[in-house]
């Protein structure tokens, strides 16, 4: 089974089983992110600064990588000086940091539902850069599978999750604030296209860099997350006055940070030994986990669009990874 077919060349059945388990764990962690954040809410809002959570996540990744290198006692590879090997990782760190902040900025120019639907265009941009930068060719069947992934994400986002509490007796409709209408400004559309392009480029460039360098994965992660910590530390410090670094953190918040840090390490292994396309399928499949956990933990109702999205994702997986 090749990388493009969803496997890793040269792996026997036991190691292939571990690879599959790793993908399932990553899918579960992606899907659990939003429900865990919802459990952190106090009086309907997140009690800590988002930049604090991002910074602590990057710092946790860095510490885990350093611990891995120390325990493994891996010698520094011979060849180019350390700064020459580390410098290329500044670009993906910058791209990831730019997109993390662009997501927040985008909300000024469109409603959340429009963002959720149109952000699925990053599947197309990732596939485009995957073909151009890595010189991979996708078959018509694989292209159709990615189109189905985009449709599944848009379908899920458009359907949303309905809160049963909204059906309970309450103030008359006239007394409630009207819902935010669907809208997007021309500037918002341009920024969204930029967001999707950066998302695809950062993913494919990271894959290219990790596969081109003959360095241990833990060392490459150390380079990437060092730049990530420095960048997010600057963003956090420049964010103006606000809650302290750990202010408002709870057990749920700590679980969010730890799960996202571990998932980041799993995703780096996918980029090193798998592909950016595999990452797209992991993120898309996590929508199912997200919906199920939201229904179980937050008592949200699953709309009909969820089942259609699940069907489309399953069909896309079969088309892309099934027997040809």
TrEMBL record:
Any single Pfam family the record assigns to this protein: Nuc_sug_transp
KW Phosphoprotein (keyword) present: no
Protein's membrane topology: Multi-pass membrane protein
Entry's transmembrane regions: 21-39, 59-76, 88-107, 144-162, 182-205, 217-237, 249-268, 280-298, 304-321
A GO cellular-component term linked to this record: Golgi membrane
Keywords: Membrane, Sugar transport, Transmembrane, Transmembrane helix, Transport
UniProt-recorded name of the protein: Solute carrier family 35 member A4
Native organism: Myotis myotis
